[in-house]
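Figure S7 source data.
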Amino acid sequence: MITDTAEFVKRVDGAAEYIRNALSGREIPSVCIVLGSGLGPLSKMAEDSWEISYKDIPGFPVSTAPGHKGSLIAGMLSGKSVFMMNGRFHYYEGYPMETVTFYVRVMGRLGVKVLFLTNASGGIDLDMKVPELVAITDHISFNAEPVLRGPNIPEFGTRFPDQCHVYDPELTDTLTACAKDLNIHMRSGVYAYSKGPQYETPAEIRAWRILGASCVGMSTVPEAIAASHMGIRVAAMSCITNMAAGISGNPLSEQEVLDNAALASDNSCAVVKEFIKRIKI
Ligand code: HPA
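Tokens for the predicted hypoxanthine complex:
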């Protein structure tokens, strides 16, 4: 938990300043895309791109999750200047929530207006077909460590932020329209946040289903909360890489997640590119 808010803001602004200087005269992007499992190839699709390792950015953590690289990319995608986070930070890696969401704070201070979060998740809706895509419309996270606990930082946002539209409805409509027009199947659904790193139990999945969740994963929610706290508009897309615990009868495995994320990669990247093309910032 943050105790010294002035020191924390200084750290965030130090990282933002470092990135601004490292961009050396390039346009500062207004969009940040977080590349979840399967979206790695997008990092190579940016034109005129610039890349910096997380370990070189002062104050930035490094990502330790499998399949998650650790670099920030800036470049042109679908005609817009974007940041891409090639690797993110998870609570299960041992980071406190202010570290998991540190990059979001930095993006906010750099002036980013739209955060597009992507992830892999387990399917809870019984009619899901692996690897389909989901536009995340809302989340359930009351079981999680609260992201905004501790003294509020007014430079970032208000003490009691409304949570009715964490996922911007207009951006989410654009996301589903992109998939439809590309003939890519996408449903809308609620994402249940799981702290991990263990997968869920079958009983937990039955409980999530009763509570209205369509899919479950170990990322995205902390970042979405921090972004909406700062007034950054959020869109989020999930790739169903496995049926959630207890549904198929098979044990869950990281390999299954990575394999199916890779299978969906072309579709996921196509949707992201179309989304970036269409959004108005
Ligand atoms: N549970 C939690 N996180 C996940 C899953 C899952 O089934 N699949 C991919 N990420």
